[in-house]
Amino acid sequence: MEYWKRLCPSHISIPSPRPSQHQSNGLLFSQHCRLAHTDTEGDYVVARQQTIPEGTLILQEDPSVYQLHPSLISHRCAGCLMSLDGIKQPIPCRQSSCTWHLRYCSSICESDYWFKVHAYVCAFFVVAQNPALLLAFQMWTSGNPMSLVSNLDQQTTDMYEKGATFMADLFRFSIHDPQAMQQDLVRYQAILRCNGFGIQRKWVSRDSVGMDTVATALYLQASKFNHSCHPNVLALFVDKTIQLRTLRPVTAGESLCISYGPLAANMPLHQRQHYLRDRYFFTCGCQACQVVPDPSLPPSIDQVYLCPNCTYKRLVLKTPTCPQCHTTIDWARILKIEGAIDNYEGDWEKVLQLQSSIYHDETLTLGKTYDQLARVHHLANRSNEAIYCCKKSLSIVQSVYGPTSPEAAEEMFKLCGLYATAGNRSRTKEWIKKTCDLYRLLGLDQQLKDDMDELDAMGRFI
C-alpha cells in the first residue's frame, strides 16, 4: 500500500516548529559555575570564583526530547520509560491496527506520547526502528536547538537523508516547505549524534551487575559540558532527569567536564582517541591524553607496568628505558608473563602472583583479580579472606577512580555484604554508614534505590 493511503488528519494539523522554550531547573548558571566560549572549544562550563566541593549538584535537567530504545518497546512505557514489570495490563496504543507493540503504564502516558509523536507515525512501522529520526522529528515540532554543535560537515549524511525525506514527504500537504523540513531533520539527527545522552538503568543478575541504555535523550544544558577522560563531574539519571555532580573539589576557573564514554582508567589512549574522533569528531586533548603523562593524575590503563628495578609505576608498553632509573626494560620477559596469565584463569592466586610481578599495585587489573578472589573465598565461607581481598580491590578502585566515585561506592556495597555475612556487627554498621554517605553524596541513593533498601535491610538484620 502506498504511504499516502495511510495518511490521517494528524498529517494536516501538524504543529509548525517554534522557538524552544525549554528551561533547565535553574541550577547550572548558579553561584557554582558559568558558561564560557572560545572559537576552538565552543561553549563550555567553568567553575566560578570559589572552589566547588565534591558531591555538589551543579545541574538537574529534564530532557528536551527522549525516545525509548526499540528493543524495549514491549518492556517499558514509551511515555515515561518506567518498567512494565508488575503491571498486569499495560495500556496498548489506541489504534488497534498499530504494529509497533508499544505499551504504556497509564492512559496519561499513552495520550501524551500519542499527541507528541505517535499519532504521526503510528501507521508507519518502518520508522519504529529509527529512534534518531523520531527524536529529530520531536526536535522539529518542539523547537530548534540551533546553538548545539552538529559537525554536519564531518558526517556522512546518507544515513540521515533517507529517513528525513520519508518523514518530510508525509507532510507535503500540510507544510509550506517540505525540503526545509527534510534539511532540518538531517541536521537534527547530526546534532543528536554529537549531543545525545543514553539514559542508563542498572540491572542485576545472579552473577553480575551492569548498566543498560534504555533511551536516548537530548539535554540542552548538559550538552554544554565538555569531555575529559579523567572527568571531575559525574552524570547520572534519576528516571528521565539528568543530574551532574562534582566528583572532587573543582577550583575557580577550572573546566567542568563529564565523560562521553571513554575513561583513562579503563580504556587505552589510542582506543579513546579513535572512539571520540569516530563518534564525536574531535581529538581529545585533556590532561589524561597528553604525550607526557600528568603526574598529578592516577596512572591510566596504558601505564600499568612496574619497573623491575625501582618504584616507578607508570611504564607504558614498549618504553625502552625506565624514566626514573633509566634501566633497560626487558619487554620480552614481561610479555611472556602476560601471555601466560590466560593459562591460569580460574586459579586466581596464581594469576595474582604473575600480575604482581609485572603490574604496579594501583592497576585496575589487579583490583579485578582481588574481586574474583573475594568471590571465591566468599563462596567457600572464608569470610576473613574475602573481606581482605575486597578491601584490596576497594583500595585500588579508590586510587584509580577516586574515593568519591560510583566505582568505589559499588566496592563498598560489596564489602558491607561480606561484613554482614561474617556476622561482624560493628564493622557492618560502620561500612553501611560510609556507603550510604557516599551514595547520598553522589546522588546514587536516588538512582539506585534498591541498593539503599538492601543496605537498610542489612543494617536492621545485623
Throw out a few tags for this protein.
462 residues; alpha+beta; three-stranded antiparallel beta sheet; 13 helices; 12 strands; 13% strand; transferase; TPR-like_helical_dom_sf
| Average pLDDT reading | 89
Distance between the termini: 66 Å
Number of strands: 12
H/E element sequence: EEEEEEHHHHEEEEEEHHHHHHHHH
Widest beta sheet: strand line-up: 3-11-10
Q: Any idea what the radius of gyration is?
A: 25 Å
Given as residue ranges, the uncertain stretches (5+ residues, pLDDT < 50) are 18-26
The major sheet is characterized as: 3 strands, antiparallel
Determine the fraction of residues in helical runs and give it as a percent range: 25-40%
Q: Report the β-strand fraction as a percent range.
A: 5-15%
Structural class: alpha+beta
Number of helices: 13
Shape: globular
